[in-house]
Amino acid sequence: MRNVAIFVVFFSVSVGFYSVSSGVEEEQWLSYRTSPEAYRVVGNMTMRRLEVITDKPEQVELPEFKGDSPLFAKWESPMVKGGFLWVVLDREHKYGSYDRIVIDSNGDGHLNDEKFIASHRIESRYSYFGPAPVYFEGEDGPITYHLNFRLYYREDYKYLYVSSGGWYEGTIRLGEEKMHCTLIDYNGDGEFNDSSQSAAASDRIRVGKTEHAPVRYVGKYLEIDGVLYRPTIARDGAFLTISKADDVEFGSIRVPGEITELTAGGLNGLLTVTLENGVGKLPVGQYRLDHWEIDRKDDNDRNWTMRGSRFGKEGDFEVSQDSSFPLAIGEPVLANLEVQKTDTKYSFNHQMRGQLNERIEILQNGSRAQAPKLQIVNGDQTYNRTFQLEYG
After folding, report:
1. What is the pLDDT of residues 294-320, one digit of tens each?
2. CA distances (Å), 244 to each of 193, 209, 220, 265, in order?
3. Is the distance from CB of 356 to CB of 311 less than 8 angstroms?
């Protein structure tokens, strides 16, 4: 067995990068950890929503149920021979919360040889389960992996969310230096080396002198303390090799001069761009903008930051050696105020969007600034009131 499940809970601005040759490539092994709330330990994770059905699957041997209305779902994974594993939820009583879950942990296509796992927390309409073990067939034997589940249940609809319940971490060496490394199966599909143009489909890696180093997308490159490296991560996450990048081809991008910070990600990983007069460089390849920032001070010496993030396909761009690609980001941004009338009541929703439809945030001294106020005045000014908008 490649790893051992251990229940552990830890409560754990990039600069420019340069291409450096040479480096030792050796397999550096990591330890496996699990937690029912892994996202609190390693940062945010994708919660994949599984379709829930009530019809019993055909040709699947089922366990004995205590309730009379079990729920069924499929968890898909490229680590499983058949491409998915059956998951079933049951409850102790005819009515009430679903409080038991079982998964086809050995991947034999049946559930009558599996044991139910009790919910570790139930609140309102939610039931929480995990970490639930599953076992993949690896080259050197079985590989242990864990899943966390959250069920939202109402009679008219039901949602089952799943995320990774385990991660890898440990100490690795970069030359003569020791670094802390964490590997995160961000998309919860059982693999730890997924890279993609989409941030949601990319796994995560964190390498630095402390446990609180920046989290990066898994990709071709990894930026550590201003140096560009090439990581190679085992599919199951048990080990990685890492070497300094050599013979990197760069291209340039252009942004408005007031941009003070810019990151972009894709198959090359998540990289921070060093900007000089609005010009920066990135390794050649396809990217999607991750975020940009503009920093300023007001007359009272307070620090203000405008931040654009959550880009869709509008934020995609390509970097080549032959041209300098311009990015339409920064100011101006668009403030939208939506008004809805229901009977005699009005509701107001205020949003700010960037030129590429990205979300805009305003920070004051590093914290979210107070929401704006809304003044409403009628034609003859007999009505004149100011309201404080709220977040959420």
Report:
1. 999 999 999 999 999 999 999 999 999
2. 18, 17, 12, 19
3. yes
Helix (H) or strand (E) holding 308: strand 303-309
Return the structure tokens found at 170: 């440990």
State which amino acid sits at residue 288.
R
Is-above-0.70 flag for pTM? yes
Q: Do 128 and 122 form a contact (C-beta atoms < 8 A)? A: yes
Q: CA-to-CA distance for 134 and 102, rounded, in angstroms?
A: 11
Separation between Cα atoms, residue 21 and residue 3, nearest integer Å: 33
Side chain identity at residue 226, one-letter code: G
Residues 95-145: pLDDT tens digits?
889 999 999 999 999 999 999 999 999 998 999 999 999 999 988 888 999
Q: What is the largest CA-CA distance in the chain?
A: 81
Separation of alpha carbons 100 and 67, rounded Å = 10
Query: Do 73 and 45 form a contact (C-beta atoms < 8 A)?
Result: no
d(CA 178, CA 236): 23
Q: Which residues are within 8 A (CB) of 324 and not within 5 positions of it... i.e. 6 or more apart? A: 251, 252, 253, 254, 279
Measured distance CA(98)–CA(123) in Å, rounded = 11
